[in-house]
Amino acid sequence: MSALFAATYPERTSALVLYGTFARFTSAADYPWAPPAELMDQVVESAMASWGRTDSPMVSVLAPSLGGDDRFRQFWARFERAAASPGAFAALMKMNVEIDIRRVLPTIRVPTLVLHRKDDAAVSVEQGRYLARHIPGAKYVELAGADHLTPVGDADAIIEEIEEFLTGVRSAAEPDRVLATVLFTDIVGSTERAAELGDQRWRALLEEHNALVRREIVRFRGREVKTVGDGFLATFDGPARAIRCARSAVEALRRVGLEIRAGLHTGECERMGDDVGGIAVHIGARIAASAQAGEVLVSSTVRDLVAGSGLRFADRGTRILKGVPDQWRVFAVDA
Q1: Domain boundary among 123, 147, 167
Q2: Which tens digits make up the pLDDT trace of 92-104?
Q3: Cβ-contact 242, 233 below 8 angstroms
Q4: DSSP-assigned beta bridge partners for residue 268
């Protein structure tokens, strides 16, 4: 429909963008890369038989990277039930099977972008290449991935290509940044303790340590980012809760015979998937490394932000944190 409009009304069309599509849905003698009509009949029958169920074969065709994802399969089942009846789906597929706009392609005279994922499981990449070859002046971009659905896989790559094609520029990726309090914990003397207990007993104690720290992180509404050596990195949206989490973890682990130290800093962090980065994270790690056994050290930023919370601090003076510019004043949380 879009290609027909662009060819018929070029004065009303600024650009044409085609993603994961085709000029002809089924194969022909001079168009061998599309599936045969008989195969499409089988696909339709299979899809109709499982319509609205979590075992729909359409998931593996349209989003193979999520074929084993139960949540996505549940979403797709709801989507099918809400979108159409099986009969309406069959009618739509029958119309698709009859599409053939190969003769229209050379008449398109508007700026055209053709996007196709290289391993698209639903529509062969050869179909995208055919479009680009037969539309005069078309720009063709082949993207990585096997998913046909645009929101699945690297959706940003699709958006960026379209943005650059339509505007002439590609926006610089803005880092996803957020203000957070980072908490680092670390077991004091872990190597010596492991040698004292032996591998089996140390592993059991380490598992208990992990369970206790995770319990406190959840209790104080933090987010576990990852384990770091024999410790944890977690983030909090409130510095007071982060401090109380650290103190509670120190006391809980002391009762099972482990001493930990903790360090906290509040600053702007860069989200990198499930991980976090940035100078604030480095500062938090350095402060934790300078803490003594059983001590919770915080930066002056954290101390200032929790004024009025009832928490008390002892001034530990200024320190040079390795790899971090300037001197930093740190405070120990009063137990």
Answers
A1: 167
A2: 888 888 889 999 9
A3: no
A4: 179
Rounded distance, CA 135 to CA 120, Å? Answer: 21
CB 278 within 8 Å of CB 323: no
Is the CB of residue 114 less than 8 Å from the CB of residue 135?
A: yes
- Centre a 10 Å sphere on the Cβ of residue 155 and count the other Cβ atoms it contains: 13
Q: What's the one-letter identity of residue 147?
A: D
Beta strand 16-19 pairing with 112-117? parallel
Indicate if 317 and 182 belong to the same structural domain: yes
Q: Which amino acid is at 202?
A: W
Are 330 and 299 a contacting pair, CB within 8 Å?
Answer: yes
CA distances to 112, 193, 253, 293 from 201, rounded to whole Å, are 66, 10, 16, 21
Q: Model confidence over 280-329: pLDDT tens digits?
A: 999 999 999 999 999 999 999 999 999 889 999 999 999 888 888 888 99
What kind and span of H or E run contains 332? strand 327-333
End position of a domain, from candidates 119, 145, 167: 167
CB-based contacts of 283: which residues, under 8 Å, 6+ apart?
A: 265, 267, 299, 321, 324, 328
Q: What interhelical angle do 239-254 and 199-219 show, nearest 10?
A: 150
Helix ranges, 109-198 (H):
125-134, 155-167, 190-197
Domain limits at 215?
176-333
Q: SS3 for 200?
A: helix
- How many residues are recorded in the chain? 335
Residue 103's SS3 state is: coil
What does the block give as tokens for 326?
Answer: 């300037």
